[in-house]
Amino acid sequence: MPVSHNNPLAGAQYGFTLLELLVVLAMLGLLGSIAVPALGKLLDSLHYRSDRSNVLAQISALSYRNYLLAQDYTLTNDNVSQELKDGHPAIELPSGWSIQVATPIHYQFNGYCIGGVVLLNAPEHPQETIRLQGPVCEVNDE
């Protein structure tokens, strides 16, 4: 068959060579090996922040819960997971987490308390000092 010299694309090859495809795949693999560990760290950080926010919200809500239940309650190291009158623990902690109360924090039946300090311990994270501000033991998250 005669080749037309009028068509500039006649006889041209289309597509990629095997070498070009291998180079692109190698580059994608390299980018993936960098991105996957960073994505894992990001997910761990998001999970920690979510758990931390949940625990701080429970600590902040403890005063109001005691007001609604019309009960006195003293938060100590020994009774963090004690059930209140509503059948739920005072503070429900994620697995591996713990709370240390420097001095017992007394919540009155009317929702008031004088404040205090709570030490929050989470796995693979430094211990945090959480200050509770009176009169309702609101979390002062600095």
Main features:
two-stranded antiparallel sheet, 37% helix, 142 residues, alpha+beta, 6 strands
Description:
The chain has 142 residues and is α+β, with helices and mostly antiparallel strands. The protein has one domain (18-140). Helices cover 37% and strands 18% of the residues. It contains one helix and six strands; from the N terminus they run H-E-E-E-E-E-E. The protein has one helix at 18-69; strands at residues 73-75, 98-101, 105-107, 115-121, 128-133, 138-140. A four-stranded antiparallel β-sheet has the order 2-4-5-6, with helices on one face. Strands 1-3 form a two-stranded antiparallel ribbon. Strand 5 and strand 6 (138-140) form a beta hairpin.
At a glance:
The chain has one domain (18-140).
Topology record:
Blueprint: H1 18-69, E1 73-75, E2 98-101, E3 105-107, E4 115-121, E5 128-133, E6 138-140
Antiparallel strand pairs: 1-3, 2-4, 4-5, 5-6
Share in β-strands: 15-25%
Q: Estimate the mean pLDDT confidence.
A: 88
Strand order of the largest sheet: 2-4-5-6
How can the largest sheet be summarized?
4 strands, antiparallel
Share of residues in helices: 25-40%
Number of helices: 1
User: Over all CA atoms, what is the radius of gyration?
Assistant: 30 Å
Q: How far apart lie the N and C ends?
A: 82 Å
Overall shape: it is: rod-shaped
Number of separate domains: 1
What is the helix/strand order? HEEEEEE
Low-confidence stretches: none
The structural class is alpha+beta
Number of strands: 6
